[in-house]
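Tutorial, part two.
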Amino acid sequence: MLGSVFYILNIIFFIGLVILIFSPIFLGVPFMPTHKKQAIRMIELAQIKSGMKVVDLGSGAGRLLFLAAKSGAQTLGYELNPFLVLWTKLVILVTGKQDKIKVFYKSIYDANIKDMDVILMFLYPPHMKKMVKKLQEAKPGTIILSYAFALPEWQLIKKEQGIYVYRR
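Running the prediction step on this input gives:
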């Protein structure tokens, strides 16, 4: 019995690894996690506190989701890599954060950002250009943080450690 469970887990891991490695071919975006130091700084710059609503567009393995939830926020993640969505859901389950973190296998362009207080993202330049229009859906006053790449045509409030901060 234990041997068959181990065998199934190995198959799931192998399939997930293949999806993770080859996802850039199919999805056009490689998995690049936000560096831990910058992820922590993003949460600090956003001044996330209890009761806030935070969304991570392209949430990957969920690092920003868990940090924002630790600060008391209700968090949503949108990710197109099915392995990363499953991984994040598993970590949510194991850590008991179901009441604070939700992750969806869905395009960032279909994300509901209308009620968010903070929008986090680490997207490549072609996606940043498309995001300019999408961010018009955010409510006025929403804080938007982007790691590594700037939002074209947006007024920058602050740039620190590769983190760009904007306000809608």
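The radius of gyration is 16 Å. In part three we will examine how such features are distributed along the chain.
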